[in-house]
Amino acid sequence: MTAVQLERPTTSRRGDAVFKALATAAAVLILVALAGVAVFLTLEGMPALQAEPGALGGKDNIVLYVWPLVFGTLLAAFLAILMAAPLSIGLALVISHYAPRRLAKPIGYLIDLLAAVPSVVYGLWGIEFLGPRLGTSYGWLEDNLGFLPFFEGPASGSGRTILTASVVLAVMALPIITAICREIFSQTPTLHQEAALALGATRWEMIRMTVFPYGRSGMISAVMLGLGRALGETMAVAMVLSATGVVTFNLISSVNPSTIAANIALGFPEASGIKVNVLIFSGLVLFLITFVVNFLGRLIAARGQIKEGR
Predict the structure, then answer these.
(1) DSSP code of 243?
(2) What is the structure's pLDDT at 296?
(3) 243 φ, ψ to 5°?
(4) First and final CA of the chain: distance in angstroms?
(5) From CA 92, how far away is CA 188, in angstroms rounded?
(6) What is the pTM for the complete model shown?
(7) Which residues pair with 256 in a beta bridge?
(8) Which class would CATH give 18-308?
């Protein structure tokens, strides 16, 4: 009996080739755009290395000018992720494993809608609503925990502090982390979960033994994406933060470090000449920090997938 060979339709092969070409072109275009941004920031930022103190806010060199901004950027982003990550993971678990379906979907939709709110709205909320209310709490922190360098005061009555800015950033990063973790948790194999429950595990033990190990790499990626959002946020921080360009761990004082993005937004409209190059150089530093953070996130996630055998 002769075997009959079936040939694929020519149109299908042509469609695959066109899709592959378009996908490859899109990937190359993104890389070209990223390289173009890097080249522009490098070429325009290099003159800042020769800038005089007058263009550097009185600093002797560009390193002394950028370092407080880097410190403020990392501090605000770290505090934001420290608050947002546990809350986001908890919300994702509630939506995927605890809340009834008729309640989980509306909660998920509301969390997703937070990502669509413009940053300027978050800034207005932080400066008009959140700041004044947190200001009263800062006085209590100073009175009771003032022996710690984080709360030594004097407390800001307006609430325009690095801690308030970090709370706003945490709210902005929350929908990103929650949405990704929710999808990862919902993809955990049902057989693994049912096997754990059949062996007598409680729901929390089942989550700890099956859901968390399965979604570890995805959780790390989600947190890193949220960190990238916090690192690059501009308007909300510029509106909320009362920045003075210092390096301090005091979280409740009106004397606060600034962030790179906020400093660029506030200083660029009036900048000219070498001052523009100084701001662009600080943007280059932020670009490198964001690139390193995302690269480390992808590396950790990839290693987690290898260990898990996926």
Answers:
(1) B
(2) 80
(3) -90, 140
(4) 42
(5) 13
(6) 0.85
(7) 243
(8) mainly alpha
